[in-house]
Design brief:
About 25% of the residues lie in helices and about 40% in strands. The chain is an alpha+beta fold. Strands 4, 5, 6, 7, 8 and 9 form a six-stranded antiparallel β-sheet that branches. Strands 10, 11, 12, 13 and 14 form a five-stranded antiparallel β-sheet that branches. Strands 2-1-3 form a three-stranded antiparallel β-sheet. A hairpin with a 5-residue loop joins strand 4 and strand 5.
């Protein structure tokens, strides 16, 4: 009985102590959780602040970049006055417009061959041509598509193109390389991107060498590489001339007939006692043509027809007659 009472007494003492220990642990856990949550919140807040700071920094950089670009664009788009110069170019005197920057505002900016036009004339030109910006043209035209066509014994047509309007000249000679200072030349001052020039006075069956040259309105010049073509021979349209007809010796049954031509030709002879002649003698080639006739009839009149044909098939004919002996 005493033992039972002792156990009950000890239980009554220990139980409240355990309950107190559990409450203390629970409060500690709650405090630790709260501190952890505060720490996480503080870290997240700091992280967001850093992100916002970076975003604001990027935004500021972007704004600075935009301002710089806007400033440059504004500078580029600022209206420019145009000065006009009267210059000697490959096509003669021409007006050359130039943006009026400080460094190119002097009267001799484009060189000794240019004169700056007075302000009143420049103003009138600006009113006519507008105030768009321009820069001096220092690039020569690009020449392409050079060809020689319609080549005849004494003439030819030379054609080419350029990537901008330009004038054109053809220099040609029978010697190579072509010397521009001594070669024959033909040309045009008309500005175009496509041009053709006829050259005449050529010699048949001859090789000709040529170059073309073009200059734009600003006087920039391009010269092509050397080209060549061969003129054909003159077409032969003239028939041979038959001359020096000789019929000798003549016998009662034989005769010899000969004649000459002024060029190499094929000769043919027809003969007979009637007209037109029906008997064919033979064919010869060369400048002298000789035929021997046999089996003739004595004391008979024979008619002759001569034919001469050159290499171009130009044909000439002639006739004669003779009488055989008894």
């Amino acid at each position: 009985m005493k033992k039972l009472l002792m156990i009950i007494l000890l239980a009554s003492i220990i139980t409240p102590s355990l309950a107190f220990a559990d409450n203390k642990s629970e409060r500690k856990w709650e405090n630790d959780s709260h501190k952890y949550a505060q720490t996480v919140h503080k870290y997240e807040k700091k992280e967001k602040k850093e992100e916002h700071k970076e975003e604001r920094k990027e935004w500021k950089e972007e704004r600075k970049k935009e301002k710089r670009e806007h400033k440059e664009e504004k500078k580029e788009n600022k209206a420019k006055k145009i000065n006009y110069f009267f210059c000697v170019t490959a096509t003669g005197w021409n007006v050359v417009p130039v943006d009026a920057y400080k460094h190119n505002n002097s009267s001799n900016y484009l060189g000794e061959d240019c004169v700056k036009l007075p302000g009143n004339i420049a103003k009138r030109l600006r009113n006519i041509l507008g105030t768009g910006t321009t820069t001096p043209d220092i690039i020569a035209p690009v020449i392409s598509g050079i060809s020689a066509s319609f080549v005849a014994p004494t003439s030819a047509k030379i054609s080419w193109t350029t990537n901008e309007p330009a004038n054109g000249n053809v220099y040609f000679s029978t010697s190579t390389p072509v010397n521009l200072s001594t070669a024959t030349t033909v040309g045009t001052s008309t500005l175009s991107t496509v041009r053709s020039l006829n050259i005449t006075g050529l010699t048949a069956s001859t090789t000709y060498y040529y170059v073309v040259k073009s200059a734009d309105i600003a006087g920039n010049v391009s010269t092509s590489t050397q080209q060549s073509f061969v003129t054909p021979a003159v077409a032969d349209t003239i028939a041979p001339t038959i001359s020096s007809i000789v019929i000798s010796p003549v016998a009662s049954t034989t005769a010899t007939v000969s004649w000459n031509t002024n060029e190499f030709a094929t000769g043919k002879l027809w003969y007979g006692t009637s007209t037109p002649t029906t008997l064919f003698a033979s064919t010869t080639t060369g400048f002298t043509h000789v035929f021997n006739l046999f089996g003739l009839v004595a004391s008979t009149t024979y008619n002759l027809l001569f034919e001469a044909k050159d290499a171009a098939s130009n044909t000439a004919t002639s006739s004669a007659s003779f009488v055989t002996t008894n």
